[in-house]
């Protein structure tokens, strides 16, 4: 069992507050008492956690980062950007993975409040069509600066850094049209999420702008995950008139598409043109090089963290304007440089 500051206080015969003052090097403590506490800390091999060090403070020096899927490299890149800014400002990070679940997200927010975190950067969970009254109240009563990244929350105007996903969907579809495709399908993300809806809107706008009829059977409802995209791609070549190209709305779903095509002995782009969203790291290993929409996730993370720092500095002001930035994605024609 790990040593706590209560154990230190008991052995040193001092109060918890005294131990906390010694750990934080704050407040007055007699030199002999300080030496005694430090001696006990060394004897008991106690290493305080970042949160324990902050018990006597009104808030910690820790930023909460809440993401829906830690296994997705897209969110790993966002976290990387956040971490770079935190390191420059001597801030620590505590990471919460919600697995696309609003209940887990609510729990993460409650923990952030209970642990007196300095602020929160969050990508709201995908896969939930509506935000409940309970959820909205939790956000409103958080009393901690919060900045959204990549996805918005309905009914509340919060600080955030977002992507112009309508433009992303439009540009991705337009690229396939320029490559000569007219039978273009799309594997959407979960349509309970704003990014997925906006990418679908952009896809439809691109078809309309090029006088191509929107074919409902070419719109495949995905969920941002590998397995669903794999199943959809398996079914595509069983269609009477399959699409000749696909807009695939997440890097994880690109993985599912590629896996299915490999198992069916189909090639990209000969048998199916594909454009993805976000870099898919493993493609270089198997020699597949497809274009993708780059949202700049590292920069998204940096921008969100910078807004959070500004918000923290201004939080005692009576009126703080909401800061919201929208970033335009760009087309990257190759996942990796070919040798």
TrEMBL record:
Residues 3-57 form the HTH lacI-type domain. InterPro entries: HTH_LacI, LacI/GalR-like_sensor, Lambda_DNA-bd_dom_sf, Peripla_BP_I. SUPFAM superfamilies: lambda repressor-like DNA-binding domains, Periplasmic binding protein-like I. One of its GO terms (molecular function) is DNA-binding transcription factor activity. It holds the Pfam family Peripla_BP_3. The keyword Transcription regulation applies. This is LacI family transcriptional regulator.
């Amino acid at each position: 069992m790990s040593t706590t500051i209560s154990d230190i206080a008991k052995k040193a015969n001092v109060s918890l507050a005294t131990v906390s003052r010694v750990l934080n090097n704050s407040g007055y403590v007699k030199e002999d008492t300080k030496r005694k506490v430090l001696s006990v800390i060394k004897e008991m091999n106690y290493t305080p956690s970042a949160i324990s060090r902050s018990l006597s403070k009104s808030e910690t020096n820790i930023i909460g980062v809440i993401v829906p899927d830690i296994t997705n490299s897209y969110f790993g890149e966002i976290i990387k950007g956040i971490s770079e800014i935190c390191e420059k400002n001597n801030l620590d990070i505590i990471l919460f993975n919600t697995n696309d679940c609003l209940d887990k997200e609510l729990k993460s927010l409650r923990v952030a409040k209970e642990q007196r975190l300095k602020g929160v950067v969050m990508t709201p969970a995908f896969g939930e069509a509506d935000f409940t009254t309970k959820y909205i109240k939790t956000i409103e009563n958080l009393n901690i600066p919060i900045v959204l990244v990549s996805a918005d929350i309905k009914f509340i105007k919060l600080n955030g850094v977002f992507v112009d996903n309508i433009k992303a969907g439009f540009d991705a579809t337009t690229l396939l049209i320029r490559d000569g495709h007219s039978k273009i399908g799309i594997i959407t993300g979960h349509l309970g999420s704003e990014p997925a809806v906006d990418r679908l809107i952009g896809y439809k706008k691109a078809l309309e702008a090029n006088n191509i009829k929107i074919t409902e059977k070419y719109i495949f409802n995905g969920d941002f995950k590998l397995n669903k995209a794999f199943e959809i791609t398996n079914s595509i070549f069983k269609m009477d008139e399959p699409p000749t190209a696909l807009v695939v709305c997440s890097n994880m779903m690109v993985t599912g598409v590629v896996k299915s095509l490999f198992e069916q002995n189909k090639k990209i782009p000969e048998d199916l043109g594909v454009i993805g969203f976000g870099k898919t790291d493993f493609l270089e290993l198997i020699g597949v090089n497809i274009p993708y929409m780059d949202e700049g996730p590292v920069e998204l993370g940096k921008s969100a963290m910078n807004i959070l720092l500004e918000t923290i500095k201004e939080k005692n002001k009576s009126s703080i304007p909401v800061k919201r930035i929208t970033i335009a994605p760009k087309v990257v024609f190759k996942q990796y440089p070919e040798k």
